[in-house]
């Protein structure tokens, strides 16, 4: 989202403009900055999506020019490479950092060349003046007005300008402002020619354009979420995104207290997926029985892949149960050792296939838990350990009421550690392993919370990972 503001003159001081900027801090909660130009001010509040480090904070500057942009520049990576070949240097992963080099190359013609949704304010050092522009459709908001000295002021929301400008106007889409004039650079309303393709070609073109439109909007350094109402448009977007990304996506549904039709359809979709999971278990079991009769190498490979399919189906079912507020917990005191050995036996083929050794130390610990749900957590932790420890070693033991699972695998990057329990987050390792869903560890934390357990991860890249599960439940008593 982000907030931008641009003051063409220094009618107000930095202290005086700050309250107007802070009215929209919800648009940019990560960082805030006010930069002084020779004649005015540029302001920016950041919601970090691309180039998440501080280097991606705006306004960007280049030889005196500055820009603050609320937008998304599609296909910026090849643009960036082309500009680097022309001698430009970049200091962040932000897509908006390409704007000033593009302005240097093309001037005001830049706006008609952009494939983007944006609202921006650019300080042109050569003219000591502001240039503002908005995308052709007006997806990103931008407003303007004139302060008490008659100087133009730009802002992301109208409320930034209340009390600052007597009259507040929406910035026209498909226009830029320069040298005191608004100029239309894009006209989407005038029809210059008509399509004469047959129906099949038209439908194929719509499909291809829709997929391409969704695809180019999935490039983000921050996790991507999706609004899913259960309607046709959002369902299509989510379906395409899931296929393009090759993993589960994180969806959100919003409904009113009364007649929440969107939530109704979202629940119906969840019910359908639950039914699907139960139905697909039968053919999975049948295929497993058939493969047991095939002793060949190919049969063993297919059996291993089928195990992965079964595991993913179980994850989906567990995910749906948790999301639906499932309460099928049977909490009782029981020995931990059989739970660990059952999980180890189930994953033995993967350990053998990956040439990973397992040291499972005997424990006499008794825990107050739900056997089925805790075993699911242990299995998921073992699954990750096997996946990221090829040819290595996994050790499982207890210390007091703590369960430890340690491997000497690839480890987790330090920047990924704080987010590994986030739903849908796969991190650096997940991006290398295209099968990663970002759901497993999220489920582990949710299950542990409901069981009264804790789970934490310590890791060092290249040395391995330790998962610690706290099994003490001091606030429950066994009758």
Quickly list its features:
479 residues, alpha+beta, Glutamine Phosphoribosylpyrophosphate, subunit 1, domain 1, six-stranded antiparallel β-sheet, 23% strand, elongated, disordered C terminus
How would you explain this protein's 3D organization?
It is elongated, with a radius of gyration of 28 Å. The protein has helices at residues 14-22, 76-85, 99-106, 110-113, 199-216, 232-245, 261-292, 297-323, 337-353, 371-387, 427-432, 440-451, and strands at 3-7, 31-36, 41-46, 60-62, 65-73, 116-124, 129-134, 143-146, 152-155, 168-170, 175-178, 181-184, 225-227, 250-252, 331-335, 357-360, 366-370, 393-399, 402-407, 454-460, 464-470. With 479 residues, the chain is of the alpha+beta class. The chain has a 6-stranded antiparallel β-sheet, covered by helices on one side. Residues 474-479 have low confidence and may be disordered. The chain folds into 4 domains: 3-184, Glutamine Phosphoribosylpyrophosphate, subunit 1, domain 1 (4-Layer Sandwich), CATH 3.60.20; 195-252, no CATH class; 260-326; 331-470, 2-Layer Sandwich (Heat Shock Protein 90), CATH 3.30.565.10. Helix content is 36%, strand content 23%.
Summarize the structure.
With 479 residues, the chain is an alpha+beta fold.
Write the layout of secondary structure elements.
Layout: E1 3-7, H1 14-22, E2 31-36, E3 41-46, E4 60-62, E5 65-73, H2 76-85, H3 99-106, H4 110-113, E6 116-124, E7 129-134, E8 143-146, E9 152-155, E10 168-170, E11 175-178, E12 181-184, H5 199-216, E13 225-227, H6 232-245, E14 250-252, H7 261-292, H8 297-323, E15 331-335, H9 337-353, E16 357-360, E17 366-370, H10 371-387, E18 393-399, E19 402-407, H11 427-432, H12 440-451, E20 454-460, E21 464-470
Parallel strand pairs: 13-14, 16-18
Antiparallel strand pairs: 1-3, 1-9, 2-3, 4-5, 5-6, 6-7, 7-11, 8-9, 8-10, 11-12, 15-17, 18-19, 19-21, 20-21
Helix pairs in contact: 5-6, 7-8, 8-12, 9-10, 10-12
């Amino acid at each position: 989202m982000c907030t931008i503001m641009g003051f063409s003159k220094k009618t107000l001081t930095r202290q005086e403009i700050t309250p107007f900027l802070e009215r929209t801090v919800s648009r940019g909660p990560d960082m805030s900055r006010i930069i002084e130009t020779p004649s005015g001010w540029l302001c920016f509040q950041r919601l970090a999506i691309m180039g998440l480090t501080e280097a991606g904070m705006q306004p960007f500057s280049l030889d005196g020019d500055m820009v603050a942009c609320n937008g998304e520049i599609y296909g910026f990576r090849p643009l960036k490479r082309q500009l680097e070949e022309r001698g430009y240097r970049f200091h962040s992963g932000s897509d908006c950092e390409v704007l000033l080099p593009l302005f240097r190359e093309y001037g005001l013609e830049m706006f008609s060349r952009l494939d983007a949704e944006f609202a921006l304010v650019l300080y042109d050092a050569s003219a000591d003046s502001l240039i503002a522009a908005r995308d052709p459709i007006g997806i990103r908001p931008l407003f303007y007005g004139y302060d008490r000295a008659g100087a133009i002021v730009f802002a992301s929301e109208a409320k930034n300008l209340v009390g600052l400008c007597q009259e507040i106007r929406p910035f026209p889409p498909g226009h830029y402002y320069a040298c005191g004039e608004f100029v239309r650079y894009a006209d989407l309303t005038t029809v210059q020619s008509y399509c004469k393709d047959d129906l099949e070609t038209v439908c194929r073109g719509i499909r291809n354009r829709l997929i391409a439109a969704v695809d180019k909007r999935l490039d983000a350094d921050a996790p991507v979420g999706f609004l899913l109402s259960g309607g046709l448009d959002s369902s299509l977007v989510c379906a395409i995104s899931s296929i393009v990304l090759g993993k589960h996506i994180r969806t959100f549904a919003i409904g009113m207290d009364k007649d929440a039709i969107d939530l109704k359809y979202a629940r119906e979709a969840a019910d359908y997926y639950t039914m699907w999971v139960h139905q697909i278990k039968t053919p999975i079991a049948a295929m497993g029985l058939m493969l047991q009769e095939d002793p060949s190498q190919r049969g063993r490979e297919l059996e291993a892949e089928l195990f992965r399919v079964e595991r993913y189906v179980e994850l989906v079912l567990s995910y749906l149960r948790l999301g639906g507020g499932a309460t099928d917990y049977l909490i009782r005191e029981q020995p931990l050792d059989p739970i660990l050995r059952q999980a180890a036996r189930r994953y033995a083929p993967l350990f053998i296939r990956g040439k990973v050794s397992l040291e499972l130390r005997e424990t006499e610990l008794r825990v107050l838990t739900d056997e089925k749900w805790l075993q699911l957590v242990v299995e998921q932790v073992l699954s990750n350990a096997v996946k990221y420890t090829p040819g290595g070693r996994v050790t499982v033991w207890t210390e007091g009421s703590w369960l430890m699972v340690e491997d000497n695998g690839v480890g987790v990057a330090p920047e990924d550690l704080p987010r590994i329990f986030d739903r849908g987050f796969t991190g650096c390792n997940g991006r290398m392993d295209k099968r990663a869903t970002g759901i497993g560890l999220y489920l582990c934390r949710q299950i542990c919370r409901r069981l009264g357990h804790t789970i934490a991860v310590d890791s060092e890249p290249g040395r391995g990972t330790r998962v610690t599960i706290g099994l003490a439940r001091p606030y429950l008593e066994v009758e």
